């Protein structure tokens, strides 16, 4: 690749972060300086296969040429208007995203957490204006072990103590039920319920896939009880599982869909609430907004992401290579792997604690030139760019086998 942009070493840059960057993350000791496709390169020129893909923000790989070209062209023309004015990219982005997802209307935001917050606000407003829930009584039912982001309201209904400890007081109005349990959900939903908010597959929890029929059951239950089904597909959506959306595996269309991560093509933060017109239509001027939401650069990149997904190529690759991934992981069962859950190019792999913690395995893989991230103690998550080749995937599985034995 090209000449280095810094003369400082990785070790020096890691040391330099310590006093000036908040310690809200515990990164692996690699300092990435450039990337292309499925590969990243550190400051010293060492190459690594990216098996995390920015928690699915890089579904199309690093710097996908079609996305980079659109971004460059847009940078040279118009980047930001604010929604005080119209811009010439937003209508197409919204039309195309709505068509891709089978819904009507788009509320453009930036980060995933903002999309979740916006979905909660829309659901509450819908509950008061359409469903007739008495003022300030709306409830939203969520699942235990969820991950929906990091704002004060969102951590209010997290069950992860490290995400909550020290951040109270919390926002009321949420009921937490076990995931994958329709009876518990049924018992929690009542006439005050605005929405059920769920991840169709729980990513941060370790790629937890509900039983067949659960999502269809949630759809049936929410329809019967007259509340909204909000699917948080910020991580599971946009090709990762072998379909455009993870809910498609059960033929489900939610009332409200939350998208983020890959929607920004790995270039800019782009998120969206996508919903039917009778739901998103409750918002009126001045009631909600974002300075950067729907900006022309984001809209251009988001439209280019929709272009890529419309080809079906990435969904197909995720489905086909998912077979390779599952096969490779099955072969490791009993050889350092005690269990795994996988769908498409996405897997949560439970490592035998006798072999090492998830962090230790991630460190050993780093030395093998593979980037992964642990989640919850002894689980590692595999989520490569959907552009990965089967040879690269086999290489990563081979490296995993080596570090486990
Ligand atoms: C990452 C994630 C979020 C939060 O997205 P941010 O862009 O980090 O705010 C919300 N929900 C799910 C399912 C996620 O994976």
Structural topology:
Blueprint: H1 10-17, E1 32-36, E2 39-42, E3 47-50, H2 53-56, H3 65-75, H4 90-101, E4 105-109, H5 112-131, E5 139-143, H6 152-156, H7 161-164, E6 174-177, H8 182-188, E7 193-198, H9 214-225, E8 228-232, E9 256-259, E10 271-275, H10 277-280, H11 296-310, H12 313-332, E11 337-342, E12 347-351, H13 358-367, E13 370-371, E14 373-375, E15 379-382, H14 390-404
Parallel strand pairs: 3-13, 5-6, 5-7, 7-8, 8-9
Antiparallel strand pairs: 1-2, 2-3, 4-10, 9-10, 11-12, 12-15, 14-15
Helix pairs in contact: 3-11, 4-11, 12-14
Structural key phrases:
405 residues, alpha/beta, Aspartate Aminotransferase, domain 1, Aspartate Aminotransferase, domain 2, 2 domains, 7-stranded mixed sheet, 4-stranded mixed sheet, binds pyridoxal-5'-phosphate, Class-III_PLP-dep_AT, pyridoxal phosphate, proline biosynthesis, identical protein binding, PyrdxlP-dep_Trfase_small
What do these coordinates show?
GO terms for molecular function: identical protein binding; ornithine aminotransferase activity; pyridoxal phosphate binding. Keywords: Amino-acid biosynthesis, Aminotransferase, Proline biosynthesis, Pyridoxal phosphate, Transferase. With 405 residues, the chain is α/β, with parallel strands linked by helices. The protein has two domains: 10-63 and 313-404, Aspartate Aminotransferase, domain 1; 65-310, Type I PLP-dependent aspartate aminotransferase-like (Major domain) (Aspartate Aminotransferase, domain 2). It has 14 helices and 15 strands. It has a seven-stranded mixed β-sheet, sandwiched between helices. α3 runs antiparallel to α11 and α4 runs parallel beside α11 (296-310). It is globular. The two termini are 34 Å apart. Pyridoxal-5'-phosphate binds next to α5.
